[in-house]
Amino acid sequence: MRITNNMLMSNMMRNLNNNLRRLDKYQTQMSTGKRIQKPSDDPVRASRALRLRTDLSRLEQYEKNSDNALSWIEITESAVAEVGDVLGRARELTVRAATGTLGTDDKQKIADEMKQLKEQLISSGNTNYAGRYIFSGYKTDSQLFDKDGNYNIDITSSTLKNKPTTSVEIGVGEEIQVSTNGLDIFQYEEIDTLLGKLPFGEATGTAATQGELVADSAFNLNADFSTGAGDAEVKITIDGNSYTVNNTDLASLDGTNTTKQDIVNLINNAENGGIRLRDVGEAYINIEGKIVIQNESYGTGSSIQVDYIGDSGGGLNEADLAAAFGIPNGSTANGADSIETSIEGTETFTNADITNEAFEGTEFIVEYNGEEKRVTLGPLATDDLGGLIDSINAALDTEFTPGSIVASTVDNGGGNFSIKFETQNSPNDGTKPQLSVDVVRANESTLLKDFDEAIASMNVGDEGKIGEFLGKLDNHINRILSVRSDIGSRVNRMELIQDRIGKNNLTYTDLLSKNEDADMAEVIMNLKNQENVYRASLSAGARVIQPTLIDFIR
Amino acid sequence: MSSTFFGFNVARSGLFASQRALNVTSHNIANANTEGYSRQRLDTTQMKPQLLPGGQGMMGNGVKTENISQIRDEFLDFKFRGENTGFGEWESKAETLQTIEAIFNEPSDSGIRTVMDQFFSALQDLNESPDSLTVRALVRQRGIALSKNINHMASQFKKLQADIDFEMRTTVDEINGYSEQIRKLNETIFNAELSGSKANDLRDQRNLLVDKLSKHLNIDYFEDNQNKFHVLVNGKTLVSHYRNSELAYNQRSEKLHPDDAEKLHDITWADGSDFSPRSGTLKGLMDMKDNIDGADKGIPYYMERLNNFADVLTESLNQVHKTGYDLDGGRGTNLFTVDGMSTLEFEDYLLNKGLEGSRAVDVTDQVLNGENPLENPLYRDKTIKLLSSGKYIVVDKISASRLTISSDVDGDLNKIAASISKDGLPGDGNNALKMSRVRDNVNLYEWGSPDDYVKSLISNLGVDTQEAIRMSDNQTVLLSQVDSNRQSVSGVSMDEEMTDMIRFQHSFNANARMITTMDEMIDTIVNRLGLVGR
Prior knowledge:
- The complex is a heterodimer.
- Chain A is of the alpha+beta class.
- Chain A has 14 helices and 22 strands.
- Chain A has helices at about 5-30, 45-100, 105-125, 155-160, 180-185, 245-250, 260-270, 275-280, 320-325, 355-360, 385-400, 445-460, 465-515, 520-545; strands at about 130, 130-135, 150-155, 165-170, 175, 190, 200-205, 210-215, 235-240, 240-245, 270, 275, 280-285, 290-300, 305-310, 330-335, 340-345, 365-370, 370-375, 405-410, 415-425, 435-445.
- In chain A, strands 3, 6, 7, 18, 19 and 22 form a 6-stranded antiparallel sheet that branches. Chain A has a 4-stranded antiparallel sheet with strand order 10-9-15-16.
- In chain A, helix 1 packs antiparallel against helix 14, helix 2 runs antiparallel to helix 13 (about 465-515) and helix 3 (about 105-125) runs antiparallel to helix 12.
- The longest helix of chain A has about 55 residues, at about 45-100.
- The mean pLDDT of chain A is about 90.
- Chain B has helices spanning about 5-30, 75-105, 110-130, 135-190, 200-215, 280-290, 300-325, 345-355, 365-370, 405-410, 430-435, 450-490, 495-530, and strands at about 40-45, 50, 55-60, 65-70, 220-225, 230-235, 235-240, 245, 245-250, 265-270, 335-340, 360, 380-385, 390-395, 405.
- Chain B has a 4-stranded antiparallel sheet. Chain B has a 3-stranded antiparallel sheet with strand order 12-14-13. In chain B, strands 1-4 form a two-stranded antiparallel sheet.
- The longest helix of chain B has about 60 residues, at about 135-190.
- The mean pLDDT of chain B is about 90.
- At the A-B interface, helix 1, helix 2 and strand 4 of A face helix 2, helix 3, helix 11, helix 12 and helix 13 of B.
């Protein structure tokens, strides 16, 4: 093969370039410390790098979550421990007060200390962590107790059904409960167990719809109305008023350049004594090319009808128009009214259950179409279901538009009735009737109430009552112990999890590093090696390109 | 008997031939570095010999210069051009794909994966402290960062597309320039060669132009039996002897894909007929600019993937968000909308303009009956969204470039619906937890969870880019191999030319020497002959 000078040059340049490129690659690996810079360097490694980084960042989040959760649980633990200590002290005092040897004076002194202990319980119940009250369930911005020891938050049927607890994620799909509900510690005193039978819950009805007429087939954009339109009419009747499509506009469509917008304008401009169709509704063409006419109003009264009148001169007849528009002559469409909603109790009452005493003053929390009100029952006229329903309806009517929410009884046979709340006369305006009802079930803590009773009995020196309290107190102490052991087991679990997260963190960091970090020893070796190759090629090149025959001709 | 001066003629022919050969050598040396130059040779032959009478044989008459020819292998030219076309295509693809890699900026600590991580982490923080305004602000900021990052990528894609469009137009101009020059050279060469001699240097120039053209387009070329030169693209003539056709670019009246950059161009022949090259730079650029799927997928594919990512992720986050309750006790709004719209505006927009700029289609009944309206071919590449009113509608996927956080949330931190129930306010963060679970939903995309989606997209891109770079590298090797062969045949070797120079110089000297010898011979005859006895 002939070798020319330019070949030598270009080969040398190419090889030098290749060498430099490799040198640059190792140089980049060296300075970034990474084996890959772009996905194309190694797609598999790159996607693994993405996964590992995601895993690591999630682990970091879990670590943060578990740290927070642990401090929350620890605060809870110490508050519950405090309650336990208070109850222990109360037990000592009560045992002393129960002995007959103590005079009333001394018992009153013990009562004074018991009062202090009660205050202490209230303050434990109102423990907060980072500005949030830990025992108040989700009402973290409210104290659990007011200063008298009554519940400051609503204990309603739905809170009793789903005791609010906060959980955090400490692994993929793995949660741990962080909060402890105050009700488990302090318990609640039902106002009347009958209230638990009252219906509660949320319900949503269906919104009213607009009258909407959809054509059977697509509008024929090639239809020619320019001849034979004569006095043909297209009439669209909306809520009883007929809107007539302008005959001149119709005749201007000759099927050559008709656009969908032309048709939409044609129909929207249909007129009835100065009022246009677009003022009371809207026509458009859907993706299938079919005309859709929509009435602005809602409900069954919202109607649309399309009629054609053929040209008296024998031009376009009704069938021609119907074929072009894709809507049969005389087609009608109506909207639908909104469908009301109701909440029915699952428990039943008999007439004998109902007493004024049980229900007077009962508080309902009712929300109707976004408006929340507290409804308090007045006295029952008669101690039967009729009386209760009347009282509920009277209370509802004072807070909401009369007749919009109606309570009634449902006869379940055998003298058993359940109670039902139902929305009525909801507006047909496209909004959904929505109702939620809840019943306030308690506002006193059993523990604190027992304390109050004990204090009262100590003040009067009633040893029998004090002895009874001792029994109740033991139950409370046992319950607190079980709550504490539950919390303790969660602390243990958290510690195990933290340990695991720490280990995983290490493993993943290691994997990430192995996956994408450059092996420095190897890179340095490669770099030095490549540098040598580059130097060698430079010096070889310098030798090769210099001499030609010219150098040797005299 | 030959003439006395016959020898002068023979020597003179040698003298002239050597001189001419030296000139050719000099031309070679002068053009040693001229791009596209092929070395030339002086072809010489014996002059017609003189018949000596009486069967004495033929007497040589000296040397005749036949022709100046160039040394060129047309098969190597053909191979070079074929490889050059492939090189042009892969080179432009590799460059574009590497830019796309840079846009995705993965693996790194500032790409889409990281902002997504941060957003979901913020939701976890919100689960713990749903009543904290600081954490709510963090969630909002992370949401904004996520949408901005997606916007930024989308706008970079658009810019890249516009850049490639510009490059494509420049290439078209270049091609038109080449074809015009080839046409002019055709005229010059044809006229010059009417006498039958070869216009070597002009042919070199034309060959160089064809080389350059071959990088941009898949061309066929031939010289017909009348020495007329033609260049064809896909069987249509680009240059035909004295005529050439031009390519034209026309601004599109309608976008090919809804998210394309503005004012892109299509390439056609100047007469308006369709033009679609099979290979070359132009094909590479056009593929990258317009292809949404297939093996040659380009920017629109990545844009579509990004839209799909943004659409599905935000829609599922929105749906969870809407089931929750905000700090004021209201139902959750949309967390993400487009163009900074509020939920109300967004739903109104979807309903009235969401499907290809017009009304969305209500498919509530079908969805509730368990059917999948997207099976309708009319709704290809569309998506179903659930409105607050409970209506399911078919709409376009939202565009990544328009994604923003909704103005409800942007304007009021309380609007972040962290609570799952109204009773749960303000301490219930379960809805935030539910939102953060969206990232674990492996059924969210056909490629799995959002993390899987990003991972798959990046590794797909990596594989495609790797292939383009490898192909481009391979083509470079092939091309330089063929070019080397070509240089071996046609290139000027200084050693060879120097040898030739000395050869021809010697030959010139020897011929001159012959003349001196002749001169001496005649001197002998004229001046010294017949002086016997003087």
